[in-house]
Design goal:
Blueprint (H helix, E strand, L loop, with lengths): L1 H25 L9 H4 L2 H15 L14 H23 L7
Helix pairs in contact: 3-4
Length: 100
């Protein structure tokens, strides 16, 4: 009885892992790989989120960089917004990223 239970649990875990791997290849929830400097840059991450959010809602490209005070933060925000926006558009159209 215990062997059957253990084999059943092992089979379920293996199948769950395979399903998880197949979903990763089809449509990743976070399609972007970040450099280490970008991963800790709040302005960049904010732009990345808002850019992808705007593209998913069908809005025009409009990076409101005025929400950040320093020029370096503004530049990082706009870059993140562009990357996030373009990534969602590329998913929809099947075009490679960075065409904007």
């Amino acid at each position: 009885m215990n062997k059957i239970l253990l084999l059943t649990i092992a089979a379920v875990l293996c199948l769950g892992g395979l399903v998880g791997l197949s979903r990763n290849n089809q449509s990743p929830s976070e399609p972007l790989l970040l450099k280490s400097s970008q991963a800790t840059n709040t302005a960049y991450r904010d732009g990345l989120f808002l850019g992808s959010f705007a593209a998913r809602r069908g809005e025009d490209f409009h990076a409101a960089e005025g929400r950040w005070a320093r020029d370096t933060d503004r530049q990082a925000f706009v870059e993140g917004y562009r990357v996030g926006y373009d990534a969602v558009l590329a998913e929809r159209t099947g075009q490679p990223r960075g065409t904007r």
